[in-house]
Amino acid sequence: MRAAERAGRRADAIALVAVSKTFPVEAIRAAFEAGLRHFGENRVQEMQAKRPKLADLGARWHFIGHLQSNKARLATQLFDRIDSVDSVSLAQKLDSAAAELGKRLSVLVEVRMGGEATKSGAGEADLPALAESIATLAHLDLHGLMTVPPYSDDPERVRPYFRKLLELRDSLSERLGRRLPTLSMGMSHDFEVAIEEGATEIRPGTALFGARAQKG
Fold first, then answer.
1. Distance (Å, rounded) from C-alpha 208 to C-alpha 44?
2. Alpha-carbon distances of 214 from 16, 22, 134, 211, rounded to whole Å
3. What domains are defined for the chain?
4. Is residue 146 within 8 Å of 108, Cβ to Cβ?
5. In sequence order, what DSSP letters do the residues of 167-182 get, joined into one string?
6. What is the model's pTM?
7. Residue 134 and residue 82 in contact, taking contact as beta carbons nearer than 8 Å
């Protein structure tokens, strides 16, 4: 990736999570055959329908949307990692579900940047306490942070949010006394800036699969 080269980073140090929500299983299968291994979905019911048809793929499935607590158990069954934990209560439900299923579930904390009331995610002030609570849960493995910054057509306008998430991750890692290797940030329109600011995972969708069908 050119962005990785500009930042003096190795391209193979940055994972690509293909956002496959709303796209058919045929598109996911083609992407897998092209070499992609990580896929992101944001609806539990949609994944429930897709997963049996893709059971033969050695893919890793990421839940990237707002997760309702009453779907925690099903999400724990269907996904390899929940990238959008935003509350202690949700973390506890995921931990209980993982315990029932006999698995250790990888998670990221979603951080709400820019103070957008309509966005999900933990506030910056709540992040330390939330992360500390997750660290006490035996069946969850906290890998790092994720964010969806306020949208802008100009990627430079979101650069400060990506930089801030890196700072939050580093501060949290020091506070917890453990590595938090994952920074999931950057989508189709701004992933190059995210890489320059330290993203270890990017989440393109339309750049890979094309435009989504319009609702209506």
1. 22
2. 25, 11, 38, 9
3. 2-209 (3.20.20.10)
4. yes
5. HHHHHHHHHHTS---E
6. 0.93
7. no
Instruction: Name the residue among 42, 117, 50 with its Cα closest to residue 82.
Output: 42
Which regions of the chain does DSSP assign to beta strands (E)? 15-19, 38-41, 60-63, 81-85, 105-111, 140-147, 182-184, 201-202
User: Under a CB-based contact definition with an 8 Å cutoff, are residues 179 and 143 in contact?
Assistant: no
Tens-binned pLDDT, residue by residue, of the chain (216 aa): 677 777 777 778 899 999 999 999 999 999 999 999 999 999 999 999 999 999 999 999 999 999 999 999 999 999 999 999 999 999 999 999 999 999 999 999 999 988 777 788 999 999 999 999 999 999 999 999 999 999 899 999 999 999 999 999 999 999 999 999 999 999 999 999 999 999 999 999 988 998 876 554
In contact, 64 and 85? CB cutoff 8 Å: no
Q: Residues near 37 by Cβ (< 8 Å), separated by ≥ 6?
A: 58, 59, 60
Decide: residue 12, CB within 10 A, 0-12 exposed, 13-18 middle, 19+ buried.
exposed
